[in-house]
Write the structure tokens for this entry.
Amino acid sequence: MKADIITIGDEILIGHTIDSNSAFIAFELNSLGINVYRIYSIADRKIDIIITLDEAIQESDIIIITGGLGPTNDDITKKTLMEYFGGTPVLDEFSMEYINKLLKARGIEATECNIRQAEVPDTCTVLRNRNGSAPGMLFKKNDKTIISLPGVPYEMKGIMYDEVIPYLTNNFSLPVIIHKTILTAELPESGIADILNIWEKKLDNNTRLAYLPSPGIVKLRISISGNNKDQLKLKLNNHISYLSKIIGPKYIFGYDDDSLESVIGELLRNKKKTVSTVESCTGGNIAHRITGIPGSSDYFIGSVVAYSNSIKKDIVGVPRELISNYGAVSKYVVEAMSVGIREKFSTDFGIATSGIAGPGGGTKDKPVGTTWLSVSHHKGVYSQVYQLGDHRGRNIEKATIYALNMLRNAILEFE
């Protein structure tokens, strides 16, 4: 079963609005076993809508359109679809009743513009919108299903859940597709590909692996399709078990919707341990990530952004001779920072970062991207140097991810 998605709106093409609708629809369709082959973004122009529809109907079984159903003159989707599929406008009583209810609550009478919102072609099946004024529409042509939905995300999602998904489930024989995402930190995409090379070559046609990289993290999404859900789950679990073994717990920090900070929070809470941070090159980003988790006050005590050497010495307690002899970006200083912050805040773990984020400040011995990270607890101190590159934003994000993963591994090993 093949599907195309068409988003209509000049605001998307000029970059004012991010097309989150397509991502949502594609995810929901894929979960049903419907493969999305193309996603179009087109202007609010009649000719563009017609040309795109012609192409999509030729190629796919299901076409879902979002946008252009509003009451203003630039919202031409409904009028164009009425011309394309034929028919005359009729008033959808459910939509009109809902509109009147909304307007009455505001003490407003329905206008001609409001009434037009409730009109639909008599050639469509109406998809009720319980969150807004524009109903969805379902058309059939050459055994193809064409669905038009509002562009407002919460209205579109409501119709998808209430109307579209039940319709597709009841009217099509769909395969089962299940997914699992393995979350890894520190390993580059190419390094993981080398590790998985032999395993990946042996995959059958119903099993797919997708690499989803971002700074410091690579997500591995495994998708398996078939007809027997229980058998697919067993097959998927076997793959996950094998990959977890060959990649290793040092780099795998979670699955699906986990984040490093949520995993760390759960570990600290379960072990009844606390953490503090002292950040130079990351500028408080680690503390920001940790405190983004609800309830983090259970285990996060505090942070110091020690950008200047005087703060490292006077507040964190780094001996001035270490900075003089080795420089702020060094193993000795970053280790002293992680120990110093742990002792100052009386926490079980301390994290420290010191590096040259860029784009300036590098030297021959310490080029831009040189970053030292450290984690300490009462049994020892861990540190690692990284050469991250010359992009300041990516360097900060990578250093944050690597430091959090270093903390996660230290907590796992801690007894």
